[in-house]
Amino acid sequence: MRDDASGVGYGLVPETRGLVAAARRALADRQRVRGQLDECARRLDEPLRVALAGQLKAGKSTLLNALVGQDIAPTDATECTRLVTWYRNGAAPRVTAYAGDGARADVVVRRGRGADGLPGAHGLTFDLSTLRWNAPAPREVDHLSVEWPSSELTQTTIIDTPGISSLSREVSARTSQLLTPGGHGTELPSADAVLYLLRRLDTADVDFLERIGGNGAGSGVGQGLPARASGPLGVIGVVSRADEIGAGRIDALHSARDVAARFAGELERTGLCQSVIPVAGLLAFAAATLRQREYAAFEALAAVPTDDLTAALLSADRFAHPELPLPVPPELRAHLAARFGLFGIRLAVTLIRLGVRGAQALASELTQRSGLDELRTVLDVQFAQRADELKAHSALTALARILTANPGTAADTLLPRVRTLLADVHGFAELRLLSTLRTDELPLPPADLAEMHRLVGGTGVAPALRLGLAPHTDLETQRGEALAAVHKWRSRARHPLADQQLSSACLTAARSAEGLLEILHEPPTTPFRAIRPNH
Fold it and tell me: How would you classify the pairing of strands 275-278 and 141-148?
């Protein structure tokens, strides 16, 4: 959430920056600590960091390509998928390998070729066999950095992580260390938010999500940090490879939505995820990069009798078999199967038969049906519009770790304020409430639950969106609605039958409405006075 968009959380980033500067002055004689504090300060000015995590072969790299809309992440099982890889916006494409001691080497990027002159289905390959280090001796690669011209990466740095269930403990540990630095040390969590990809929901997924949320062993709770404060604050679940849930059938995403709803019920009930969204990542990426030659192939397949094409699409091997009498060459058919999957082929052909014409129109339809648009909307509301809060949370969490690990200095006086901010800042309270609102645990009617969800920023942080009004509604009407919301939710909080959880949720909604009143009674350029928690 941005301070100028909603007002809630105004002043959080400047106060965090001031606390970091004060800590740096108090710990000026400790060189290593100064470097960590400098990193805290830099986090506030950098793009939001979003990590992609999940078990092995969950589809992280494919989803990354789909979100960026370009083929920039290798998707085949090579050595680079066993490394943490940072994707940032850059003036020109460049891939760099870094060793643990900071030594670096340029990485050669190769692009495979596919059928009929098209790019290969597996896209890029990062060649780590020919590294030339800027150091006297060869090094072991610690992580990769990819700079790529992309508007999607301007505001967000994406971190692609190895699968947490890798056969190699060392590989899995890289992801754990990145997102859940444990113990009482000063390791700083590297991500502000997490997209966690699920193919199924098992113990490994739940355990890892609990560690991210600060509820597992090695969390920051033992350091005096509130629960949910030791790791990234924003976590969204993605039912990845959703088309495979329905065995590639045309109704596969309907089946995936049912699965996502079940996962959501289990994860959101425990507060481990704020939302769970089904996405067919392979289809989403293929749609984002659809070529005219591929569209022409789909158009030719749409002219094949339905029964004949249905029989051909029983499996990918059968579809690409050279003896099948189809109007598309076998090599191109194999390419389509690798790029779009059987679900994507069936869907593309069906859409063309229903009247969709042109590569651009088909790409738009496929993207919508892949679930990517819904995911982008959730990412915008939960992450992008709250980027300042998420980054401040990461910086404050890191600062709390540093201060706790370096007692006995003048910086000790800063720790209570840091802990207070982590526990009481209203924007954080909104995010925590959003992570539980879609459960049945709050005894409120559906309409009130929907209003509370909207009021605390579940559909966007602009005042009109929070109030459920049209964007250009006059200020007087918005003020009236905000004042009514304050009275309503404060009254609900005081109800004699309201338990502590319900009362706290209602107070959070009331404070959101009070924040809106502050904005709506002041000119847009006037700084918003920070909301203080009620005690």
Answer: unpaired
